[in-house]
Amino acid sequence: MARLADAAQRRSPKLVSNVLRAVYRTQSQKPQFAAYRLPADISRLDHLTPALLIITDESGDRQIALEADALQARGWIVRHINHTDEQGALAALQLTTRLIFVGTHSTETIERFTAEAGRLQVPIWRLQQRPFGDTVDGRPLLVPVRDAKSLGKRGTRYQADTAERARFWELPGASLKPETAPLRVMLVNTYYKPRSYGGATLVAEEMARRLGKREVEVAVFTTQETTQDGNGRVLRYCVDDQDVLSVPTTPGADYRADEPAGMAAAFGRWLDSFRPNIVHVHALQTLGLSLLTECRLRNIPYVITLHDSWWLCYRQFMVKADGHFCFQTKIDLAVCEACNPEASDVRERAAAMREGLEHAAYLLSPGRTHRALHIANGIPAERIGISRNGFLRPMHPRTPRSAAQPVRFGFVGGNEAVKGYPLIRTVFETLSHGNWELVLVDNKLNLGTRSMFVGHWKTKGLVRVVPAYTTTSLDDFYDQIDVLLFPSQWEESYGLTVREALARDIWVIATQPGGQAEDVRDGENGTLISLSGDPDELRAAVERVIQDAPRLENYSNPYKDDLASYEQQVSELHALYESLLGRRRPGT
Predict the structure, then answer these.
(1) What is the spatial distance between Cα 179 and Cα 23, in angstroms, rounded to a whole number?
(2) Residue 80 burial (CB < 10 Å; 0-12/13-18/19+)?
(3) What is the pTM of this model?
(4) Residue pLDDT tens, the chain, 588 long
(5) What gap in Å lies between CA 161 and CA 67, rounded to an integer?
(6) DSSP conformational letter for 196
(7) At what angle do helices 107-120 and 86-93 cross, to 10 degrees?
(8) What is the C-alpha to C-alpha distance for residues 342 and 324, in angstroms, rounded to an integer?
(9) Which domains does the chain show, CATH number per domain?
């Protein structure tokens, strides 16, 4: 996960001029992103439902309204918005394929809307002003707008063929997609490029990109953090030739995110515009359960990937306030209420979560342990499957380890107690010998801050801190270590770095049970320890590896071919979508 920390630094070749800032509250699991720019390469409009936005002044126009009603009857989405509602109009513009200005507007208003329409490649028209007439054969006369300057000129005759000017009203309606049309999937995740963070986000982004290569039409619904002054607006942009709609979220919003943020309305409009066959929900935090209701209202099936314990646990990771694992299997809500004494809605939340899961077309878990947890809490086994996450395979062979080198340990989990960081410090400060090196990844360094301070550690070996690695420096990082430490203190749903290490012939010391341990064979490609948090157990595992250092020199993981791949994962997902929709392709 740490390699994702620099994702906010990555840029698209085409960028809009306005810079948005995502300012986060100081929380251990959330980074403070630097300023980022949204990609501007909006690819096309023909994959969206035809939508007309009419921005009017106070006068309005009855004939325009009648013609718009006729378009709506042919399947268009039509919205009338007064120019004084600037935020509403800019939000509606994100899902618009044609824009009409009616009446008189200020130069500032014109420039703002034409700039945004230009970014979205939305054609702009205006009602022809008198004295030259405003109808053609009794229909409103519209002329295309070339730029903001031409829109602002009143009474300027547009020298074009009359038929061309009237052709606007002959625009085709919204045709229904036949069963043979490309599959249309909408992905939902709280983060998305360029605001990438977390394992669920990486999976969602990679699946979207690979589905697109399979000629599946993909759209994304995600959030953008509000600025410090509370501002923010709906924005559509394009990543990997796929449309993304981002909506400001409310800090601290959880499953009831719609109440302060209006998520349901924005998501419903995005569903109406893109018209997906199926919706795949990844991380729903800060987006809210109301999105699932919008799917049900439109009879659109949805799949949920259970990336963590958010659906079962008020605290998301089944980790108590003291940083220790809860150890519940069958959830007792009385225990949850005692764990969250300040919360009055523990039972209400649990009921709402259960309803959302029950209406899903299918549920997916990254691993066996996580699946078993949800089955223990009432999910029928036949309604939940396993979708093992892929990862980036090595691009070149591992650099051979020298016998003269100390045993090099690596830790990528961050400075949180639940990831085992204090446990690692305790163990390495008490090792009696110094023929080892510890490499700690601080995923905040790429963001201009620091979260790990080791100058006061008292150790006999070398401890050094390095920045988070990127997709291009992934192999270089793993070339620096011989053993990956993964002493997580909760039952992880998966464990990305464990798979990255196993694929690169790195010995892994990990806790069990949990998804992090499912590809580790104790004594063959790693060492498994309990979730007890006992430093003596981790110390014993570390010392055994140091004593058996010659084994690491020519070590090769005999089970690395059994690890999941992105291509395998996307193939399984594609087949699942088709099966749920009754569109299974021949040979699958």
Answers:
(1) 44
(2) middle
(3) 0.82
(4) 333 333 333 333 232 223 233 322 223 334 333 333 445 445 567 778 888 888 887 665 566 677 777 778 778 888 888 878 888 888 888 888 888 887 766 777 778 888 888 888 888 877 765 444 455 455 566 667 765 555 544 433 334 444 444 455 555 555 544 445 689 999 999 989 888 777 788 899 999 999 999 989 999 999 886 655 455 678 888 888 899 999 887 766 666 644 545 788 899 999 999 999 999 999 998 888 999 999 999 999 999 999 999 999 988 888 888 878 888 999 999 999 999 988 888 999 999 999 999 999 999 999 999 999 999 999 999 999 999 999 989 998 888 888 889 999 999 988 888 889 999 999 999 999 899 999 999 877 766 778 899 989 999 999 999 988 887 889 999 999 999 999 998 899 999 999 999 999 999 999 999 999 999 999 999 999 998 889 999 999 999 999 999 999 889 999 999 999 999 999 999 999 999 999 654 343
(5) 20
(6) -
(7) 20
(8) 19
(9) 51-170 (3.40.50), 178-386 (3.40.50.2000), 407-562 (3.40.50.2000)
- Per DSSP, what are the bridge partners of residue 81? 55
**Token output for 340:** 């969250």
Q: Could you identify the residue written with the tokens 């006061």? A: 456
